[in-house]
Amino acid sequence: LAGKPLVISTWDTGLAANLGAWQVLRKGGQALDAVEAGVMVTEASQNCCVGLGGNPDREGIVTLDACIMDDKFNCGSVAALERIKHPISVARRIMERTPHVMLVGEGAQQFAVAQGFPLEPQQLSPDAAKAYQEWLKTSQYRPVINIENSGSHKPVGPVGGANNHDTIAMLAQDAQGNLSGSCTTSGMGFKMRGRLGDSPLIGSGLFVDNAVGAAAATGQGEDVIRIAGSHTVVELMRQGLSPTAACKAAVERIARIKGDKAREIQVCFIAINNQGQHGAFALQKGFSYALCTSENQQQLVQSGYLLK
Ligand code: SD4
Predict the structure, then answer these.
(1) Are 274 and 292 in contact (CB under 8 A)?
(2) Residues carrying an active site annotation
(3) CA-to-CA distance for 14 and 174, rounded, in angstroms?
(4) Which helix (H) or strand (E) holds 297?
(5) Closest by alpha carbon to 23, among 7, 10, 9?
(6) Which of 14, 75, 108, 205 is the most exposed place for a label (fewest CB within 10 A)?
(7) What is the spatial distance between Cα 89 and Cα 67, in angstroms, rounded to a whole number?
């Protein structure tokens, strides 16, 4: 199915990331290259909590997770990676140059260095260092809805500000009609050392089936994992649901499981189908996704949400 290229990505930081992806798509490039180039913009950005500028775990160490999936069920994932600037590119190398899907921790870093990725200094960004000092005063792990990186009851940045999200997930369809997706994160701020969320897990943080569609998640990773969220959204689209309806059904499933506790968390899904339709849905108010269908058509779309 040949179509018009299209890229969507989570939160307001997705606007700049989509432009990065668009540079690939507009030249007739592949969706896989686009979703890598796109989220690299966010990983490299100084004023964003994705990548090495993100908030650390409770021991004060930044650990990064990412995954990537193409139109042929090739996938690569890296988790608990330290001191490497572009985890998404490491995930892609794992996909393309190893017999494995996933590498974690020390072994992942060893592979990255052997592949020529520079080892960056072990140090927190000024914002993260400040946030960590503040967090140490209470040392309470209490993620704030839509401000996942704050990790305590005190928001670190302005609500809805560009620096509040520690994750970006991106989905693209190229001019040939092929789909790919990427997801990269510093994980929930002040998480336990060794904690992994949904973002590096194929099927939870991201899933692509070129014959159907692609989906990705952001928000409370533990609750996305519980229902293998992104895979669920793709399977619902396979049954005929639109991207938005599929995202909504997955969010409703999480809400049923969580009961009263649903009010304490945020989960959000984005999706595109192989017809180039896109959509999203969130548990709580405040989620938006960035949409790009041409150089001059950058747009932030407000997602629908379940809990009024
Ligand atoms: C995680 N899903 O590590 C990520 C967090 C996130 O915006 O999406 N934050 O659980």
Answers:
(1) no
(2) 167
(3) 17
(4) strand 297-302
(5) 7
(6) 75
(7) 9
Residue nearest to atom 8 of ligand 1 (CA): 218
CA–CA separation, 30 and 96 (whole Å): 15
Ligand 1 centroid to 185 CA: how many Å? 7
Rounded distance between C-alpha atoms, residue 83 and residue 85, angstroms = 7
User: Residues 266-308: pLDDT tens digits?
Assistant: 999 999 999 999 999 999 999 999 999 987 788 999 999 999 9
Task: Decide if 286 contacts 235 (C-beta within 8 A).
Answer: no
Distance CA 71, CA 12 (A): 26
What is the pTM assigned to this prediction? 0.94
Ligand 1 pocket test: pick from 220, 223, 226, 303 the residue with the most ligand atoms within 8 Å of its Cβ. Answer: 220
What are the Cα distances from residue 166, in Å, to 62, 147, 236?
11, 8, 27
Q: Alpha carbon 246 to chain centroid distance?
A: 18
Residues lining ligand 1, Cβ inside 6 A: 148, 165-167, 185, 187-188, 197-199, 218-219, 221
**Measured between alpha carbons, how far is 75 from 262 in angstroms, rounded to an integer?**
31
- ipTM for the complex? 0.98
Q: Please report, for residues 27, 80, 244, the alpha-carbon distance to residue 283 in angstroms, rounded to integers and kept in the order given.
A: 36, 27, 13
For the record, the structure tokens of 271 come out as 């999706």
**What would the pLDDT profile of 213-228 be if each residue is shown by its tens digit?**
999 999 999 999 999 9
**CB 163 within 8 Å of CB 49:** yes
Q: Is 52 annotated as a binding residue?
A: no
Give, using CA atoms, the residue closest to atom 3 of ligand 1. 187
Q: Which amino acid is at 50?
A: V
195 is in an annotated binding site: yes
